[in-house]
Amino acid sequence: MTQQIYTYQPDYAAPPGDLIQECLDELEISARELARRCGRSGKLISEIIAGKAPVEPETALQLEKVLDVSASIWINMEAAYQLHIARQSESRSLAASYDWAKMFPIKELAERNYLRKVSDKSKQVQELLIFFGVGGVKACEEKIEDLLQVDFRTSEKFDADRSALASWLRIGEKRAMEIEAKAYDRDVFLRTLVGLRKLTRARVDDALPKIEARCAEAGVAFVLEKALPKARASGASRWLSPHKALILQSGRYLTGDHFWFTFFHECAHLLLHSRKEIFIDLGSGPGSATPKQEAEANLWASEFLIPSAAMRKFQSSFEGAEGEVKEFADELDIAPGIVVGQLQHNGVLRHHQLNHLKERLTWGANP
C-alpha cells in the first residue's frame, strides 16, 4: 500500500558551467569571447560558468549556435542541477523536522506497509509526507487539522493521541479511495441498512465482504482498520466528496455487539448530520460530535437495532435467563449478543453477565 518514488536520484549533479568550460578549453577561447559571440555580457557568462546564474532558454539557444551543443542539453543540465540543489535544501529542512515526525506511529505504519521505516532522517520525514499526500510539514499540519477538525483538536484528551489518530484516519481515507462506489443515494443506503441488520446474526468475518459491497452500492466506502497505538477511536464517518461517504471502524473492544452498534452509529451520522463535518467516536470520552449529535446517533442506532418499545416490553418481564434473550433475539431477527449489550447498557444486566452470548472478535486478516 506504500506509495514510493523509486526513480534514480544521483547524489551529484554538475552545473552547465562545467560543460561550458570544457567546450571553451576544447575550442581554446575565453569566456569573454564566448560572451561576445553570444551577444551577452561577460559577467553573465562568467556567473553561468561558476554556477551562480542559470542557463535561460534564450542563452541555451545562443550556446547551441556557438558551441554546437543542443539547447535541450543545456536546459536539461540546468534543470537537473537546480533540482539537485533543491533536493539538498529540502533534505536539510526535512532532517530538521525529524523530531516532529517521531510523534507519529512510524513503526506501526511500516509494519502495516503504509510507509517504509528508514534510518535516514530526511527520508523518514519524506515517507511520512508521502503517506499523508502532502508536499511539506506545514501542509501536513493543515491536512491533519482537516482530518481532525478544529473543535475536536482542542480537546485536552485528544492532544496526546493527535498524531496516531490522524494517521489512522488517513489510512481510512487512503483505503476508501481504492473502493469503487456508486454515487451516494440516501434511499438506497437506508434499504441497504435494513438488509445489513440481518447480518448481525452471522459471524462478523463472514459479514464484512457483504458490508463493504452493499455499502459501496449505496455510495458509502466501508473500511475496517485496527486502531493505531494511542488512537482510541472506535469509529469515524465523513464525506470524501458530495457523492461518496466513508465509514471507518477499528473493531475496538473486539465484540460483535460493539462492532454493530458502532457501524449503525456511524451510519446515523451520515444520515442525520452535516456533510461538512467529520465525526470521530472514541471508545470512551468525548469525540468530535456535539453531545446532541452523539445522543441522536446513539438513539438512531439503538432504535434501528432494537426498537425501544419492544425493549421496554421485554425488560418488564425479563428474569435474566439466557433462553429469554435468545427467544427475544429470534423474534427481532438479530444477534443475541446485541440484546445482551443493550441490556447491560440499560443496567438490566451487569457487564459480566451473559457475555458468552456475544461474538468475540480477533485480529487476523480481519477482526
Outline the structure in words.
The chain is of the alpha+beta class. It has three domains: 16-96, lambda repressor-like DNA-binding domains (434 Repressor (Amino-terminal Domain)), CATH 1.10.260.40; 100-148, no CATH class; 181-367, no CATH class. It has helices at residues 16-27, 31-38, 42-49, 57-67, 71-96, 98-101, 106-111, 121-132, 137-148, 150-153, 162-177, 186-197, 204-217, 256-272, 291-305, 308-317, 322-332, 336-345, and strands at residues 220-224, 233-241, 244-249, 279-282. It has a four-stranded mixed β-sheet with strand order 1-3-2-4, with helices on both faces. Helix 5 crosses helix 8 and helix 14 (256-272) packs across helix 15 (291-305). The model is unreliable at 150-158 (pLDDT under 50).
SSE sequence, one letter per element: HHHHHHHHHHHHHEEEHEHHHH
Q: Order of strands across the biggest sheet?
A: 1-3-2-4
Largest sheet: 4 strands, mixed
Unreliable stretches covering 5 or more consecutive residues: 150-158
Shape: elongated
How many distinct domains?
3
Number of separate helices: 18
Proportion of residues in helical segments:
55-70%
Q: What gap, in angstroms, lies between the N and C termini?
A: 19 Å
Radius of gyration: 30 Å
**Could you report the average pLDDT, rounded to the nearest whole number?**
90
Strand content: 5-15%
| Broad structural category | alpha+beta
Count of distinct strands: 4
